[in-house]
Amino acid sequence: MSESTYTVTGMTCGHCADSVTEEITAIGGVRKVEVDVESGRVTVASDGPLSVEDVQAAVTEAGYELVGA
Known about the structure:
Layout: E1 2-9, H1 14-25, E2 30-36, E3 41-46, H2 52-62, E4 65-68
Antiparallel strand pairs: 1-3, 1-4, 2-3
Helix pairs in contact: 1-2
């Protein structure tokens, strides 16, 4: 199991967190996503390391910006 933490900007509420969670969960191998809206921290547990590009694409699709990995 691999765990990575990212910083996402633009989230302001639970719906934002749900959107980001839904898009990242769609990436193959992702097991768990935890979003802290206040800090913008997104922690992803997966079967193996994820491509930052894949995570960035998922966050962008949800309507937010990945600013740190």
